Amino acid sequence: MALLPLFFILSISAGNFLNSVSYKSPYGITFPGYPAGRFGNGRILTDYLGVFQTRVNGPNLTVQIDSFEQLIKQNVYSKSEVESSIIIVNTGANDYITFILKDRNLFGLAKYIKSLVDELTVNLKRIHSLGAEKIIVSLLQPVGCLPTISVATLYNECIDLLNNVPRDHNKIILQNMEDLNKESGKQVFRTLDLYNSFLSAIEDKQKSRQENSTLVNPLKPCCASLKAGYQCGKVDKNGKKKYTVCEKPELSFFWDSVHPAQNGWYSIFKELEPSLSQIIGTNF
């Protein structure tokens, strides 16, 4: 049995610090049974990939790359390990959600998308310069389907207008990846299609629910806030919970207002499995 290469996860929206809500109850309620830093009730995509947590942490992608570079300089990882490793860069949707919900200026989105993708492209070049030869960039998921957005439809449907944001983002990403590969003369940069895998998984759940109305609505979050200004895991000054948790978290597609639940991530992983096996060169 072939050994898997080293995996490194670099994320624009890291969210992996001890003061994060992901280290508070009820996160981790399904797995491992306590809050452990995962934004969900249990396993997330990297768990299904068999990825261990590296020490490459930071508030933004640039700082994480700084940490990664330092580890290489300290010989924590050898040149051959870095060359054979797989770097997964997760772009995340948080920046766009914040822009949409707070600024509400959709006319400025095109410029904002380009600025984020341009910054990401610079960072991808830097990762490659450190010796990485296999860099996978996740495409942006359909933000119009996230509960924080679909709540406007009472979780009945995705808001397709706002899915133009990830479509535009992903179009530029794909073009930039093609250009970077031409520059390097080889297939260094690849993409992981979270957009279509999310949509397919959600549509499958919706179709099943049409046939059986007792099934869980895939667009509705399991952990929901009771009041505006609060979120899953938050309490008031008296320690009173300002959120509710559904009866069966293990059946939900979404855990909170933006993150899939363990069940959701598993469904997405199964959609991605064929392309992942092809990219990584092994079966899961």
TrEMBL record:
Keyword terms, alphabetized: Hydrolase, Lipid degradation, Lipid metabolism
GO MF terms, alphabetically ordered: hydrolase activity, acting on ester bonds
InterPro entries on file: GDSL, SGNH_hydro_sf
Pfam families: Lipase_GDSL
Keyword Phosphoprotein set for record: no
GO biological process terms held by the UniProt record: lipid catabolic process
Keyword Iron among record annotations: no
Family membership noted in the UniProt record: Belongs to the 'GDSL' lipolytic enzyme family.
Protein name from the UniProt record: SGNH hydrolase-type esterase domain-containing protein
